[in-house]
Design goal:
The structure holds two protein chains of two kinds. Chain A is built from eight helices and four strands; from the N terminus they run ααααβααβαββα. Chain A is mainly α. Chain A has two domains: about 100 residues, no CATH class; about 120 residues, Arc Repressor Mutant, subunit A (Orthogonal Bundle). In chain A, α1 packs across α4, α2 packs antiparallel against α3 and α6 crosses α7. Chain B has two domains: about 70 residues, Arc Repressor Mutant, subunit A (Orthogonal Bundle); about 80 residues, Winged helix-like DNA-binding domain superfamily/Winged helix DNA-binding domain (Arc Repressor Mutant, subunit A), CATH 1.10.10. Helix content of chain B is about 50%, strand content about 15%. In chain B, the strands form two sheets. Chain B has a three-stranded antiparallel sheet with strand order 3-5-4. In chain B, a hairpin with a 7-residue loop joins β4 and β5. The chains are: A mainly alpha, B alpha+beta.
Chain lengths: ~250, ~190
Amino acid sequence: MSYDIKIDNFEGPLDLLLHLIRKNEMDIYNIPIAEITVQYLATIDTMQSLNLDVAGEFLLMAATLLHIKSRLLLPQPEEEYIEEDEEDPRAELVRRLLEYQKYQAAARELDERELLGRELFARTFPSPELGEQEEDEFVAVGLYDLVEAMRALLRQRPQAAYHEVTFEQLSVSERINQILTQLADRERLTFGELFGESPSRHEVVVSFLAMLELVKLRMARLLQEARFGTIWLYPAVAESPADFELDEEALGYG
Amino acid sequence: MDDLKAIVEALVFVSESPVKIEQIAEALDLEKPKVSAVLLELCREYEGNDRGFELQRVAGGYQFRTRARHAEWVRRLSRAKPFRFSRAAMETLAIIAYRQPVTRADIEYLRGVDSGGVLKTLLDKRLVRILGKKDIPGRPMIYGTSRGFLELFGLNDLSGLPTLKEFDQLSLDLPLSEVAADGNQTP
């Protein structure tokens, strides 16, 4: 018996099972487990024979099917021993299949909408950098923006050092104090300025941690000019630094 | 401000993302209901006239957008091909949109497959954002849809999402890609 289906077209085991059930017009509340297991395993075999990388999830589902099948084969317990909440071993699988189908349908419906940039178009603005923005139009910097900025920095900055003679480890608390001095002189610093010119990887990491600590201690604020804009570090109106114990141990970098 | 309607129109015209009633009200030093009434009037005018674009309410604001029936002509100018989301991306996005806040584990249980890669793509495209961390062991990240999601799908807010259809039977209309696959199957 051959299975004329396109193999690599399934999103996952649930998708494959739904396909098999539909194709065979099976009743979802009474899935013939033996039959579906045979077909499911045959499909996976075909996948493997085509050298397709069969993801672990497909194998896990195969094991689940076999487990359900074996439970169905076990003799039913005598009537007086049947517990009330003894469920059909297939029930959880059926629930998952129906739930998955629900989101497949929702995904299709979303995809059929008129999308911006596909069916509908808005004006584009090529140079958002033009025009000074007021400070109160700034938005708080999200975690994800910050991670992106850090990644970009690590990608571009550190180069091989040829003349590494002395090795001075800068500590996070030292860096915090340096940044505070910088902020006292200037009103604000850009994210890039925090790291100075061609810092080592160590300096980048220490500066980044120092910046995070300052934000956590509410001594500085990170703001951004709209989305994708420059990230700025502002001093926050907070207690003076002297109120804090800024030793490495207290910060947890000991 | 005799030509209030024209002024409001100008503000919408120059706004990069859907502009909110509050923003216009603040800029013009007007009450919100007044601005709202003008915007609705503009919406109606554009809807009625046979113009190349209309004023739409998206992501809690207002934006001029072209009409779907002109999509092909607009694309000819920009020489852009209509983009297509993968099924994995759409499924993941649908789950996040309807179930937010969700963890990656929630998504993977529903889809039955690893969804880390898709999730990262959706984060990169800023359709999905991290809402925070869930207060359970391991403190997993929780995800939700972003403003960009509303803008892309032309929704004013999440309540505008189509109602989820509950199935108690297997639906017989196949997913699009399976229909496509059946079309070129080998005998």
